[in-house]
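seq as requested:
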Amino acid sequence: MKQTLLGPLPISMKRKYSRVTAALLFASAAIICSLPVWATPGDNQANGNATLGQCIGAPGVLIVDPFADHYSCVSLGSVPGVQTPYGGLTFKYNDTNTLLIGGGANDSTGRIYQIGVIRGPGGHITGFSGPAKLYPTSSSRIGQYNDAGVAFGPENVLFVTRFPANQLEQTKLGSVTPSKLTNLSPFGVTSSVGSLAFVPQGFPGAGRMKLGSFPGGDWYDVDFSPDSNGTFSINSASLRTNIGDAEGIAFVPPGSPEFPPNSALIAKYVTERIVTAPLDANGDPIIAQSQDFITGLPGAVGAAVDPVTGDSLFSTFGTDNKIILVRGFAVPPAPAPIPTPPRCNFRVGIIYVDPSGVPPFALRDEITADPDVASVGLFSAVALPPTLEQLQQYDIVVVVNAGQFGNPTTLGDNLADYVDRGGVVVEGAYGYDGPGSVLGLSGRWLTGNYSPYNYSKIERTGPFDGSIDDPAHRHPLMAGVTTLQFNSMLAGSLPAGATKVATAPSTAAGEALVAYRAVSLGHTTVGITAYLGNDNHSGDWGRVIVNAARWLHPCRIPTPTPTPTPTATPTATPIATPTATPTATPTATATPASTATPTATPTATATATPTATATPAATATATPTATPRTDSHLANISTRMRVEAGDNVLIAGFIIEGTANKRILLRGIGPSLVTFGIADPLSDPTLELNASGGGLIASNDNWPQNPNAAEVMTSGLAPLNPNESALLLSVPPGSYTAVLRGKGGLTGIGLVEVYDLDADGAAKVVNISTRGFVLTDENVMIGGLIITGDLRSQLVLRGIGPSLSNFGVPDVLADPLLELHDGNGALIQANNDWRDTQEVALQNTGLAPTNSLESAILISVPPGNYTAVLKGADGGTGNGLIEVYKLALK
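struct tokens:
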């Protein structure tokens, strides 16, 4: 149990406190008047006044600089009718005047209570309308062992963390008992979970679930999905950082004084304080930049934000058991429901050979049971192997055989081609029998080193129980896996580059049971030594296989923008690559309109080592209507796609207009994309910035080598990997081109980003464009943009292909298709041929494409996050260009 011991270094464990009857503890509701900001220093009476920084009714509790000049604090006292000690708190999903709070925390008698709040002038909470009642009814058993995590998630399911059981409780609407209980230890969550929060809309990583363990302080990002029962399956928990003795989590309303944009409040139980930290691109706290907000708050545990006023509320666990309210925050945006995460709808293919002729029905059923699986196909390879086209019907292919493949060479070639094109293969026994065995795969699978194991002929028979390597910090393949039972296996040693994540007990201790290996073109294959082709196995083998798809073919990539940008159709449209959010989010400023149509010098044909040149010109001949006004601002643009060698590097162009220099930061991202599920990232990106005439302005290979690396760090946008690139500099108005390539001709998925760091300046980014070689599936071109400010923006987006040949660009995308998605991944608008829908309106802007097969969208959108996807309408490939023009509103 958790307890606090007196002394200079309190022990990070809470103590279970004895209960006293509600009648003795709570004689009446505490009604606190609204807090004035003038006061007599040192007045700590609940009905008194206090200077800024002091907390009325809570002696010793102080708001610290620089926040003391803006915020004031008051104790609302204890909550009548709630059993002590207190746990977490949140507001009811459909009633901003009802507060939910955990009572009897950390104990089997714990429950979730609900109580009305009394609001005074300005809507600020002044007390409670008690006594509290159990939620949702008097017969409720929700909230046993509750701790700091109490929050409504998607579909208004109530999530509660359980301490010290290390469990996550879910309760559907209308239920009086928990609907689902998940043990978090199999997902690598350090015992025991203490806090939980869902990142709100408007913050980076919106919709993501975050967990914190106590007292260890590990902070996790959780992948979860609907489970067909109205609740949610936990698929994995990825350790992101460590936040120390932290409990409750809340998110600071945007625009609150002294807080950096996108910040969190974290209750620190042991050290008796509330700290704040800015969030990184995935919605996780940057602990190195944390600072104290409140000190001297014993038992700080729960945290919540009043959706009406933005006031923060904190509950305390222990002898005090009270609610502290802090005023001075900005009024938050209207509450938005936590979005339901999409299902992955994986299509799984099982390639099998069995001498009995019986397909592996048991394995098929185990895989089918996973809610992220849409279908499982069975393909017998006893005669002919599946073609590459047949393999490409599946997101993941599993190979199991106890007999000879009809053509092991062609099958091996096709599987290697499938992996080269982004497919995921899980190889099982006896595919690596040999070499030279009639049972083993051959062809390029063998000669190209795609197998996760060295070939072997050593068979072992059991039964066996597999063991998971490093269960405390388990690999994504082992997320949620508890049991791996099997009866036979083919023992194979690991080749260079392979990593074992589960072990098979045998006479040779430590033989690999599950392993993975980095192979050709930066892809990864997975191997299982157990034979799964019959029903002589049990446990979580289906989950291991689907975990391979979640890891290597993700559909729910954490999106580090203020709102997530997943694909509208997970199995067809690639998910937008995460882009970071600037620490200093640009505020709305006047956007000087163009006095002439933004144009840039056409891109010259790239050479083997392309010197960055300007983006191909906008073909507009007329001038967009321009009326300077304060409306909105292009704060960030990013593009993700596969970076090839030679001509097919990633080229991003942008235009700055105005009368002064513009401070910008460019990033070339590759290795850290692995964190977001990208299987073949560009391992060592290099970045160049060139002027419109082609002259090199600056270049960078590894960002820590920059002379101003410290300034990059201070911006909050330093790349996560030292092999990634960044340039922070001030440039005059004009046209610029950034070129992202792989060092030494390396290839892989890369991300180029441009951030406008001074929205208040006299110069503005009015046009952005990116050119590269558009492939298919996940290797189409994906552009993200962030619009900040107060009003809508009028945009023209163009998907250019055929007309690039006029500028000497080879292998152009013959028939571009352009899509615009909102921050939740929903398709807003799509266009194939620009004349089909908005011909006259586009011509009036002067930005209509010159070729009828090219695409364009004219649209007015509110501030937010958007994703543009460019692909071949007919599945074609070639050099393409995405352009975004911001027009001034009339």
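The longest strand covers residues 632-643.
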